[in-house]
Amino acid sequence: MATSAAVGIINAVFGSDATFGGAPQIENTTESIKSAWTFINSYEPRLNYFCNALVDRIGLTVMRYISFEDPWQVFDKGVLGTGATVQEIYVMMQKATPYFSADRATNDEVMKAEFGSDPAEVYTAYHAVNSRIKYKVTVNREALETAFMSEANLSAFVQNIIDQIYKPAELDAFIMKKYLLYQLVKNNKLKKVTVAAVTDEASGKTLVKKFRQIYGKMKFISKEYNAAGIPMNTPAERLYTIVPVDISASIDVDVLASAFNMDKADFMGHRLEVDSFALNEYEVERLEHLLTGNDPSGSGAVTIATGGDKTYTHVTPDDKDMAAIQALMVDRDFFQIYTKLNTMRETDLGSTLDWNYFHHIWRIYSASPFANAVQFTTKD
Questions:
Q1: Is residue 112 domain-resident?
Q2: Residues of the chain with pLDDT > 70: what percent?
């Protein structure tokens, strides 16, 4: 009999440390699952260690269960090493220098050309940790014992932990990226191309035609499509499109892939979707909790600003400027998103025989002023 994911997690915990030496290999039967609880509960230090290992193991296998996954994970840059700030450097291309005619150049000109200093023009952007979030879940001893009464109970117990700390972390990461875009749009940090609203297949083809035009220009070095106004290009392998699902339904994928001179299979990895670029009512509710700690005058866990006042201003659900965006076309390096810390800590509550677990996530949510990015919007 094949084991369920929940049973597989328990077996993985048993195999992860010598503390569980002699543990039974459990199967999808009530008797087998109950025997696992008998083994775990027979030694108090083993029980405590098991709870810690279980929550960590769920974190490693969470994507098998989770019902929501951040659809823009492709832009995450990974774990930040030492320090809490990323320094992004752009070095301007040097211009050619002329030859001097021996009979026309002065000694000073010759000396300067030969021995003078001509340093490169360097631009720098800094991206600092601006999100420190934690999620708490309490594991009750009685609930843990009940979980080992059947496979269904065990699966429900694992899903409950995921629902309380891992799924909200995925959702909040997605919300923060949408809020980052909101800040960029409101502060005029995102290049704009005006298009007609996509309402059917014909208008979808018109948008794809505009995609082809802008992509054709972005392949070449220009200052037109990044916030810093520096010479930059974006080849096909670095280009991603993000399209709302309603608009995506009006665009033929094969036609869109051909616009970027890519076959369908390759292109699908560069085509992302979003429900809407505007934050909906529930997303705004979660965002305000993150930014203000449920106190509009207080300080929350996140401080994101991309120009202008860092004080949080209420975001209107379904904001018209954001809802007007028909698509984004971005270089993969446009989003500067790093994880500084992703760790679990626990507290053993002696008075209640519970365990509290705290999932800490510290991140950078920022955007490169040097990378190309364009919004296709119906707003002028």
A1: yes
A2: 82
pTM equals 0.80
Contact 139, 161 (CB under 8 A): yes
Average pLDDT, the chain: 83
Question: 223 lies in a domain?
Answer: yes
How does pLDDT run across 27-75, given as a tens digit for each residue?
Answer: 888 888 888 888 888 877 788 778 777 777 776 655 455 557 788 999 9
Say if residue 115 is in the same domain as residue 237: no
The answer to whether residue 316 sits within a structural domain is yes
Residue span of the structural domain in which 209 resides: 168-377
Q: Is the pLDDT of residue 3 over 60?
A: no
Same domain? 290 vs 185: yes
Tokens of residue 323, six digits: 């809802």
Pick from 100, 133, 196: which is nearest to 363 by CA? 133
As for how many domains the chain has, the answer is 3
- What residue spans of 67-195 are helical by DSSP H? 107-115, 141-147, 151-161, 167-186
Q: How far is CA 289 from CA 71, 130, 204, 271, in A?
A: 22, 15, 37, 31
CA distance 107 to 331: 47
